[in-house]
Amino acid sequence: MDGLKLNALCVKAVDYKDNKTLLTLCTIEKGKIGAAISGVKSEKSKLRFAASLLCFGEYIFSERGGRYTVTGCTLTDGFFEARNGVERLYSALAVTEILDKTTEEHTDISANIYSALNALKNIAYGENPLGALLEYTVAASAEAGYAIDLKTCAGCGAPAAEGWFDAETGGGVCGACRTRNSVGMSKGAFRLLYNTVYNKKRGIEPRENGVLNSANSGAKTQKNDALNSEDIGAKAQGNEVFSSENSGAKTRRNDALNSGNGSIEIHKNDLEDNLYECLRVVNSYFSACNEVRINALNQLLSLRFFK
Ligand SMILES: [Zn+2]
Q: Where do the domains of the chain lie?
């Protein structure tokens, strides 16, 4: 008899007694589940890959009394290129950790998983892994019910609170409403975060010569056929999250922020600075609003100090 088959991303693996490893698997079909897998600590095990973080595949289970045991797995994508470099690796691990920590069991988290898979694809194979991570953090926060609002001041409601970010209130604040917990953001970082939150990607993708490109190159990754929509229906649903946020977003402010972006030349180092600044802000937001600490994101940010 064939076992139960589920498409799942492995987000956590913990050693357990009797040569067992306990996995947390985010499945498209059944949400987040725990499952045991045996013998994968042995070098000879053919299922070792199935117990490693970032493994996305079709897992096969036996089920007894509501407990799942992994008996097989066909790899769809292990995002192995995400191991090429610490930024990619920590970004990828941050995605799985955020997916794990911002979702509950027994709920449909397929949209979250598609966003995470899309992010992992761009982190592993794309040119702008930090940008892909930033996009994902913003989407995951919105999916968890804590959408970042940068259009109005969280204190007084004045439009376009450019310059200050307040993690406690989840968005921009104006100079008059800022508190000692508000963080000042550089213009470039604020605009990058704004464009990410409202899915205005024009002008924020790096080009090889270090000058920003107006085309949305990073989002189109070619390599990963396995993740294409036919297979698992894995369209980038993160985009839909963004665009639903975006309805009615055509304020004058918005236009002002968008126009001219394509022609502004920002060098790659500036983009990197801005990305780190945005990730730092979103990280503080994760601790304040979502009340989770994302270790991989903290590690990524602390690496920055040693560069
Ligand atoms: Zn205000």
A: 4-77, 87-304
Cα 28 to middle of ligand 1, angstroms = 41
193 alpha carbon – ligand 1 mean position (Å)? 19
Q: For residue range 147-177, what is the model confidence (pLDDT) as tens digits? A: 999 988 888 888 766 788 998 888 888 888 8
> Do residues 149 and 170 lie in contact, with contact meaning Cβ atoms separated by under 8 Å?
yes
Among candidate residues 138, 157, 162, 152, the one with its CA nearest the CA of residue 281: 138
Q: What CATH superfamily classification does 4-77 receive?
A: Nucleic acid-binding proteins (2.40.50.140)
DSSP 103: -
Question: What are the pLDDT digits (tens) for 219-269?
Answer: 333 334 334 433 343 333 334 333 333 333 333 333 334 444 443 445 677
* Total-model pTM: 0.77
What DSSP element (H or E) covers 263? none
CATH architecture of 87-304: Up-down Bundle (1.20)
**Cβ(216)–Cβ(262) under 8 Å?**
no
